[in-house]
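User: Please predict the structure of the protein below. I'd like the answer in structure-token form so I can feed it into my own downstream comparison script.

Assistant: Understood. Taking the following sequence of 428 residues as input:
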Amino acid sequence: MKFVEGKIIQEKVFGDAVFPKTLNPPIGKACGTSDLLVEMIKEKREWLTDLLKRHLAILFRGFNVLTPEEFQSVVEAFNWDEMPYLGPTHRAKVTDRVFTANQAPVGQCINFHHEMFLIKQQPSKIFFYCQEPAPEGGETSILPSHIIVSKMEEELPEFVADIEQKGYVFKMKTAKENHSNSIMNKTWNILLETEDEFEAEKRAKEKLNCNAVNFNEDGSAEFVYGPLNPIRNFEGKRVWFNPISKYSTSDKDITTFGDGSSFPEESFEVYKRITEENNVDIKWEKGDVLLLDNLSVQHARRPGKPPRVILVSMCKCYWISFREWNKVKESWIDSGYFVVESPLKLMRFWKVVEAGDIHLNKTGITIPSQGIPLPVEHIRYTENGHGDEENQIEGSKKCKQFTYIGSICRQIFTVFGLAREPDRNRPR
């Protein structure tokens, strides 16, 4: 079975890629079902992963996903690990992997942002599911972040150069009372699960990646982030990951350059205009499922009228740090081998492979954002454990189920038909 390529009126084309890519049920299956969608995802998982890399957003429409449980089955069909939500807004848990979207009144606007951009680690993929569309408004708006960078460089090149060189500092204020009607509707003690200010500051720096915490007399707290560069590199593209616009229209946060100097007022105006001119409003239909690359796409919420029920599910982001990648490059340049120094790093590397951020096949390994192929036969391991026979594994199983580094190594070779006896004389 094949998906039928659909179209929505609001879609845009960036380069040669439609945004978002809309997929409808196969010909002859005009009334799709969630079971059909799950079956097709399992069958075409690799193709869909590649499609997401190109288009950054996929809208599954016409499959009549009726319940949160059916939505969870769709998410699980991709075989990506769950990413639990952590952040300053309340989310109600609906099923094991499904949560409500922001529960602030639907009449409030939520500006463009990457999910959990305030947190140390963000989900790499995010699914939205429309259980009930708003009778009016309430669209989810999406925007490729690399477009923001290119447009800002065209219009304000000096500002972009300054913010990359100096970084920027911004502040986020928590709610005064739990379950308030604001977008940021968690108090600091609920968010950080402690009443102790010293412990709260410690946890904030660990989990939220902020630099300082100020506790206010009104019961709120202010998290200070930066200096940091809002522009990051993903998949070979420079994306505007940390927005300079406020998360909501009512926030009182302050944004400055890293040296304390103020942003030119023009920068906010141009940034807002660029986001408005280049976004796509998803006008929801009941049963829609929208999949986004959260590292490349920002999303927002338009004001609407209740009732509106949009649910979300998130998947983990696996990555290799620049420091680790630099070691990989050095070992590749010096010896022609990709050197993994520890079981933990190999596990992390394999997780990136599983998440689709590295392509691994019989001819080699390619990290798209770096564009450097790493042939499988040129992998070397510096650990000397090999695992025993009962730990040897079948290609269908995942590396994370095994402890010994040798078993993990053998998994990689077994999956791609390159299994062989360990070379005990390999370079250390």
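That's the full token string. The chain has three domains: 4-142+279-315, 146-275, 322-415.
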